[in-house]
Target: Biotin carboxyl carrier protein of acetyl-CoA carboxylase
Amino acid sequence: MTKNHESDVAFIKALAELLRENDLSELEVSREYGEDDALNVRVARQLISAPVAAAQAPMQISAPHSPPALAPSSSATPQEDPAQDPGAVTSPMVGTAYLASEPGVANFIAVGDTVDEGQTLLIIEAMKTMNQIPSPRAGTVKRILVEDGAAVEYGAPLVILG
Model:
């Protein structure tokens, strides 16, 4: 691995920069150089300045520059944690959420839609791979908690099914 040392350091620095640029808390990558040579890297950071409630509500994180006037409009349920809702579908990975298969196409789901078990709810792009997020059960879409193109963390609530 010594022959790759300098490129590995540059690679790890690039991962740290991705973490910072995309406001992520963790990245994990594996590189295979051959049969007996590999690099496994986990880069993580602790977000000290973000309150716990904001870390669990992607809509608030994605718009940190929003005027304070927006907060009272959502005051109907400020103490409710969407991740604790029994119908919550959470993110299985860190990445970028997309509500449609490509720009200009209708979203996979909308509030009020009835979905079947296994139906695609949205896509999460992670490491240039598009991962379909299937519905864990049949139900009705009560809330969509992410915006198209928003960064999501592992375990973050994405959709509430009823």
Observations:
- Strands lie at 26-34, 37-44, 88-90, 95-98, 114-115, 120-126, 129-134, 139-144, 151-152, 157-161.
